Amino acid sequence: MSYAIYPGSFDPITLGHLNIIRRASKIFDNVVVCVMVNSGKVSPMFSLEERVGQIKRVVSRLPNVTVECSDELLVQFSERYEKPVIVKGLRAVSDFESEFQMALINKKMNHKVETLFLAASEKYTYLSSTMVKEMGKYGADLSEFVPHEILEEIVARTKSK
Ligand code: ADP
Question: What is the CA angle 40-124-41, rounded to 5?
């Protein structure tokens, strides 16, 4: 069995994230979406439980995708799986530097853990969770940015912030 581990803060999950999850689910037997607690991002808009719940709703029709969360280092979390491959989405050169550094550190900690980069779909290269939160604050239409299953929840929360 092959396992892709897809980590992130997903605050909230966007169509860009979902695009990577779908594509990884066609390459690997299993995809484990891992909501990271210690992602370095302070005060998330959605609690860990809310983010896990949102992602579970969004991926419910993808049979080989599961959702977990972790307060460990990503490498420690990945070691629970057989031959884990960390999957990352790359939007632009700006993502590359920190992602490359993380991949090298993870490899140093456990040489068996590989990192695979998937190029973001051209359609979503501009999309980030931060942008969704910012647009939502000003009442912009978010339907092209977040999965429909969680649209109302995202609109309600971002508006109130
Ligand atoms: P963000 O950078 O939007 O806050 P996360 O920290 O949750 O997102 O990122 C999780 C992973 O998803 C990272 O590998 C990130 O590069 C990737 N990612 C984020 N947005 C997109 C997108 N629009 N297209 C492809 N990959 C993305």
Answer: 10
Q: What is the atom index within ligand 1 of the atom nearest the CA of 9?
A: 7
Give me the sign of the Cα torsion angle 20, 35, 42, 15.
Answer: positive
Which H helix or E strand runs over 70? strand 65-70
Task: Give 65-115 pLDDT, tens digit per residue.
Answer: 999 999 999 999 999 999 999 999 999 888 899 999 999 999 999 999 999
Contacts of 52 (CB under 8 A, 6+ apart): 35, 67, 68, 69
Which protein residue's CA is at the shortest distance from atom 24 of ligand 1?
16
Residue 50: HSE in the Cβ half-sphere, 13 Å Cα cutoff? 12
pTM over 0.90: yes
Beta-carbon-side half-sphere exposure of residue 71 (alpha carbons within 13 Å): 1
The alpha carbon of 151 and the centre of ligand 1 are apart by a number of angstroms equal to: 18
